[in-house]
């Protein structure tokens, strides 16, 4: 299993796709891991070298020894890019991974050639903080099945429930996931996520940037899309109608096509 060490942590990543093609680093969201990108990656693996990483505290990566912030996770991503000697590369981040992608671009601009931000945000706020801290509490108190039953309506829209997903099938798959993140690790990631703030620094992002949002996203509503577009000069915003926060899993081929078109 491919791993790299940064500081005191041993982190897991996967490196696949067309090894002769341009690289694309994929950063998962809160509580997620390399598998989160599968519905999008399967449409891109024949055209790109894909590198998916498990953030500290997630997936097959080592659990953190102390609290951390998004800047630490960005340093992890920079360490992976250096470890693989990718040079300046394309980076895509989903949700919290989009925050990591922003911080990576801000702190290590020479490492990011193009940036894709999907269903993400540029600052925590009281509403988001309350939601995330409450979900962390529920993760401690509910069974896995009940936790996912609580989460699903936040992730998928009513149209997606009617036409795209089977709630019972999704809940069973998530409940049986051997990489389901422990409550303590999830809580540390929540604290990192809600402490992130890039809004007053967005003008420093100079690389071409694509923003992809769902117009019915409850976790990262359209106000974040508008703020990011206003802050990042020249950024392009694409809004998927009828999509929620789970757009990577319900609209994977569309998201992949948008990424491919942007990178080309």
Summarize the structure.
By secondary structure, the chain is α/β, with parallel strands linked by helices. 42% of the residues lie in helices and 18% in strands.
Q: What number is the mean pLDDT?
A: 96
Which spans of ≥5 residues are poorly predicted at pLDDT below 50? none
Q: What structural class should be given to the helix and strand makeup?
A: alpha/beta
Oligomer status: single chain
Number of strands: 8
> Between the first and last Cα atoms, what is the distance in angstroms?
31 Å
Helicity level: 40-55%
Major beta sheet summary: 8 strands, mixed
Q: Strand content of the residues, in percent?
A: 15-25%
Q: Helical stretch count? A: 11
How are the strands of the biggest sheet laid out side by side? 1-2-4-3-5-6-7-8
The global form is globular
Radius of gyration: 17 Å
Q: What series of H and E elements makes up the topology? A: EEEHEHEHEHHHHHEHEHH
Describe the structure.
This protein starts with a strand and ends with a helix. Helix 2 (70-83) crosses helix 3, helix 4 (126-141) packs antiparallel against helix 8 (183-194) and helix 5 (144-155) packs across helix 7 (167-175). The relative contact order is 0.16. The protein is built from eleven helices and eight strands. The chain has helices spanning 38-41, 70-83, 96-107, 126-141, 144-155, 158-163, 167-175, 183-194, 222-231, 247-250, 252-263, and strands at 3-6, 9-17, 23-27, 49-53, 89-94, 112-118, 209-214, 236-240. It has an eight-stranded mixed β-sheet, with helices on both faces. The radius of gyration is 17 Å and the shape is globular. The protein is α/β, with parallel strands linked by helices.
């Amino acid at each position: 299993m491919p791993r790299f060490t940064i500081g005191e942590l041993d982190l897991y990543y996967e490196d696949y796709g067309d090894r002769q093609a341009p690289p694309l680093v994929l950063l998962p969201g809160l509580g997620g891991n390399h598998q989160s990108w599968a519905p999008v990656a399967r449409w891109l693996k024949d055209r790109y070298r894909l590198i998916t990483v498990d953030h500290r505290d997630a997936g097959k990566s080592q659990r953190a020894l102390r609290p951390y912030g998004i800047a630490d996770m960005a340093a992890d991503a920079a360490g992976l890019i250096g470890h693989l000697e990718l040079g300046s590369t394309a980076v895509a981040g989903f949700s919290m991974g989009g925050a990591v992608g922003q911080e990576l671009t801000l702190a290590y601009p020479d490492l990011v050639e193009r940036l894709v931000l999907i269903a993400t945000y540029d600052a925590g706020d009281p509403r988001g903080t309350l939601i995330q801290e409450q979900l962390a509490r529920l993760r401690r108190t509910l069974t896995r099945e009940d936790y996912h039953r609580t989460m699903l309506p936040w992730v998928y829209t009513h149209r997606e429930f009617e036409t795209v997903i089977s709630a019972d099938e999704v809940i069973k798959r998530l409940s049986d996931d051997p990489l389901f993140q422990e409550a303590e690790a999830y809580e540390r990631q929540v604290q990192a996520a809600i402490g992130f703030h890039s809004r007053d620094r967005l003008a420093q992002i100079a690389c071409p940037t694509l923003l992809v949002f769902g117009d019915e996203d409850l976790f990262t509503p359209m106000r974040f899309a508008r703020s990011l577009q206003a802050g990042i000069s020249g950024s392009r915003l694409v809004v998927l109608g009828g999509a929620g926060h789970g757009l990577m899993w319900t609209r994977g081929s569309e998201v992949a096509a948008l990424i491919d078109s942007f990178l080309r």
